[in-house]
């Protein structure tokens, strides 16, 4: 198996997390996905999590750094689950479908407000963009595997990956939602269906 993809595996600041800190990050992820993060103050976050501000300062030195750390935590944990789900699939065709379907499932809890806040905050948006690029590379690996095994037609894997990457970037930028009304998660699901029907061997 390749290294974790679709998300950076880094921990914020290079530090390991205690069990309590990991729990707080999980709670912050759920809060941010549902409500966005731009309007929260550290006081409000401490109140929601029933912890002290000093506890939050142990996670990050400012609200802005905390927001980036939470976004990183979300993508890192999501990447682990996506790869675990993909590893259960048997055969290249099922792995491609499992990968994109798992990405869709991980993105599904994210609200429109969360995406709007990502788009408006470049440090957090860069995390999403980086993970989108990693995902496109992972799809190319899976397509290459399928071509070699005969599960897929003898397609040009780099071209297919480039098309997938273009679609992923359009999803990440909000262009697909704007043009079609599809949320990111649904767009990834449609991409999986389109890709598999297009390259499957007869």
Automatic annotation (TrEMBL):
Q: Which GO terms describe its molecular function?
A: DNA-binding transcription factor activity; transcription cis-regulatory region binding
Q: Which PROSITE patterns match?
A: HTH_TETR_2
Matches recorded under Pfam families? TetR_N
Q: Which InterPro entries match?
A: Homeodomain-like_sf, HTH-type_TetR-like_transc_reg, HTH_TetR, Tet_transcr_reg_TetR-rel_C_sf
Q: Which residues bind DNA?
A: 41-60
| Domain HTH tetR-type per the UniProt entry, residue ranges | 18-78
Q: Does the keyword Transcription apply?
A: yes
**Keyword DNA-binding tagged:** yes
What are the alphabetically sorted keywords of the record?
A: DNA-binding, Transcription, Transcription regulation
What protein name is recorded for this chain? TetR family transcriptional regulator
Q: Which organism is it from?
A: Wenjunlia vitaminophila (Streptomyces vitaminophilus)
């Amino acid at each position: 198996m390749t290294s974790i993809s679709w998300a950076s595996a880094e921990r914020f600041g290079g530090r390991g997390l205690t069990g309590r800190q990991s729990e707080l990050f999980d709670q912050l992820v759920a809060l941010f996905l549902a409500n966005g993060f731009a309007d929260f103050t550290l006081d409000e976050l401490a109140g929601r999590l029933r912890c002290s501000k000093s506890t939050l300062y142990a996670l990050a030195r400012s609200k802005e750094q905390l927001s980036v750390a939470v976004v990183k935590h979300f993508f890192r944990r999501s990447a682990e689950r996506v790869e675990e789900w993909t590893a259960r699939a048997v055969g290249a065709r099922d792995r491609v479908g499992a990968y994109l379907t798992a990405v869709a499932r991980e993105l599904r809890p994210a609200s429109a407000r969360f995406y709007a806040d990502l788009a408006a905050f470049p440090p957090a948006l860069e995390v999403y963009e980086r993970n989108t690029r990693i995902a496109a590379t992972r799809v190319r690996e899976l397509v290459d595997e399928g071509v070699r095994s005969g599960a897929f037609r003898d397609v040009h894997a780099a071209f297919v990956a480039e098309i997938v990457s273009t679609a992923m970037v359009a999803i990440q930028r909000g262009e697909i939602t704007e043009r079609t009304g599809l949320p990111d998660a649904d767009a990834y699901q449609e991409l999986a269906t389109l890709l598999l029907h297009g390259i499957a061997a007869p």
